[in-house]
Design a protein that fits this description.
564 residues; D-Maltodextrin-Binding Protein, domain 2; Dipeptide-binding Protein, domain 3; disordered N terminus; alpha+beta; 2 domains
């Protein structure tokens, strides 16, 4: 159906998803023969409630369980296609977006998907009790009209101002819709812990048939899917097999125990080409980036000179050559200067010159900020405190494990002691959200529309009496605590400019302002390598998702490995 990622194995225990029991087959299965796709996945489900989900993997599952409001293709910008919304049109001033909806899509329990479910989903985003990290989606929508329900099949999105139409549509359609009839009475203050978060109700071509925590997630065709016949799932099962260790995932791919694996390192891709010709290697494009986030609540990282010195201490090009370049010399990465992907043609700032690797200049900046080796132990110190911090990253990611060690060595050369701590992925992401870390090696799957506020808008907002009139904002993905009034001003200006060509210079200046501040050590954009067994056809592994339109993927009958 739509964009993102997933994981699985055979069958055992079941969690009911509503409607008919998912493990009860129909009396006669008239479907053509399918197959089972076994995916090696690093982490378990975090939260399948779209208004609070955070990981790319959860998003991928959601987007194959939910019928999207608008379908997307991408070529430098989003191309919008009918789905639940059959057509849409803007008012002359660009502040009202009207949509007509299909009337034949149901949740798997038989309840129709209507405009009321869209209204309910976005009401959850707006509710402070929910604390949705996607609150930026509604910031330029008129309260009570995000959307305005006309009737079950007609809605209007009222915006406070016109802005880029791709971004407007994305804000209105990016969330997997939640069923009002199931969640209306839920306690919104504890919504993240609701049972629905790991047991959602499908409206798309797949349903969640089995969930065994930390073991596997199984999707099967939704026999109650009421959408177009051509949108029905072609595979019999998609099994997400939870395998935290990268090396184990790779061995299972090599042995044929799994059919699909994301995040293959460049060195292992070289080996797979030689030894496993049955595994196709597919490059996704510039969707994924790596960074080191500095917690700006920590006094050690509050001086811009220190952050720039840290950046100049690291030889990023050398790390790219070691970790992200093949034995043939082909690079799978490019230096990052921000969080706007280079795939957004004309918006990404190609003119920013990355900070050079310059150890002497780095040491000079550290000294300016008061950090020198006063006690002769080989490490920088200031007021008796050593420049020492812990870098956390998530387990099961070999690339980040390798990069952590290289970063540690580079920083030690300038007198900075960096310790390394690996955390289980969901714990790692939660600690970022809570700002409970010192420095973190993480990554983003970039948005394919421009809305940088989620990551970079100040996480406090002050009124005229700045000393007494400040309140927290709900930008949970701004986990560095970044705050720059000029960046905020440019975000406001860019979002208020509806013509993309006119907004582009504003976005480019904003990227320069943030890069100069270095709230992240911006590392690289990666052309992620995905391995998939050659028997699978009609797959869509692209910049939108590693599992895009999973319902279209199929295996020819003569190549089926797992028969029902």
């Amino acid at each position: 159906m739509h964009n993102r990622v997933v994981r699985v194995l055979p069958l055992l225990v079941l969690l009911s998803c509503g409607g008919p029991q998912p493990d009860t087959p129909p009396a006669e299965d008239a479907r053509p023969p399918g197959d089972t796709l076994v995916i090696a996945e690093q982490t378990d489900i975090g939260n399948l409630m779209s208004v609070v989900s955070e990981s790319e993997a959860d998003g991928a599952i959601n987007e194959n369980l939910a019928y999207p409001l608008v379908d997307i293709e991408f070529d430098c910008s989003m191309k919008k296609l009918p789905s639940l919304a059959t057509d849409w049109a803007w008012s002359n001033d660009g502040t009202v977006l009207k949509m007509t909806l299909r009337d034949d899509i149901t949740f798997q329990d038989g309840t129709k998907v209507t405009a009321r479910d869209i209204e309910f989903t976005y009401d959850l985003v707006a509710d402070p009790l929910v604390a949705s990290p996607r609150v930026s989606y509604i910031e330029r929508m008129v309260p009570g009209k995000h959307p305005l329900v006309i009737d079950d099949t007609h809605i209007e999105w009222h915006f406070t101002e016109a802005y880029d139409r791709d971004t407007q549509v994305a804000h209105a359609s990016a969330l997997a819709l939640l069923p009002k009839h199931k969640l209306e009475s839920a306690d919104r203050a504890t919504l993240r812990g609701h049972a629905y978060s790991k047991n959602p109700l499908a409206s798309g071509p797949f349903k969640l048939a089995l969930y065994e925590p930390n073991t596997r997630i199984v999707l099967e065709p939704n026999e109650n899917f009421t959408g177009p016949e051509e949108d029905r799932a072609k595979l019999d099962k998609v099994i997400f097999k939870i395998i935290p260790e990268y090396s184990t995932r790779l061995i299972e791919l090599q042995n044929g125990d799994v059919d699909f694996m994301r995040g293959i390192t460049v060195a292992d891709a070289d080996l797979l080409r030689k030894n496993n010709p049955e595994v196709r290697l597919v490059r996704r494009g510039w969707r994924s980036m790596d960074y080191v986030a500095w917690n700006l609540n920590n006094p050690m990282f509050q001086d811009q000179r220190v952050r720039r010195a840290l950046a100049m201490s690291v030889n990023i090009d050398d790390i790219i050559a070691k970790v992200l370049t093949s034995e043939t010399g082909e690079s799978y990465a490019r230096r990052a200067v921000g969080t706007i992907t280079p795939a957004l043609c004309g918006v990404h700032n190609d003119d920013i010159t990355p900070l050079p690797h310059d150890v002497e200049k780095a040491k000079a900046l550290f000294a300016e900020a008061g950090w020198e080796d006063h006690d002769g132990d080989g490490f920088l110190d200031k007021d008796g405190e050593r420049f020492e911090f812990t870098l956390t990253t998530n387990t099961g990611n070999k690339r980040r494990a390798d990069v952590s060690i290289l970063l540690q060595a580079h920083l030690e050369r300038v007198g900075v002691k960096m310790n390394i701590e690996k955390q289980e992925s969901n714990t790692f992401f939660e600690n970022l959200r809570q700002k409970d870390y010192e420095a973190a090696l993480g990554g983003w799957s970039a948005g394919l529309f421009v809305d940088p506020a989620t990551l970079w808008h100040s996480d406090v907002e002050c009124g005229p009496d700045a000393a007494a009139d400040c309140k927290p904002r709900k930008y949970e993905f701004n986990f560095t605590g970044y705050n720059n009034p000029r960046a905020d001003e440019l975000m406001q200006q860019g979002m208020g400019t509806p013509i993309p060509m006119e907004a582009a210079p504003v976005w480019k200046e904003m990227q320069q302002v943030i890069y100069d501040d270095q709230p992240y050590l911006f590392l690289w954009w990666m052309d992620e390598i995905v391995g998939i067994h050659e028997r699978v056809e009609d797959y869509e592994i692209d910049v939108l998702s590693a599992l895009n339109h999973l319902n279209r993927w199929r295996v020819p009958e003569e190549k089926i490995k797992y028969r029902r």
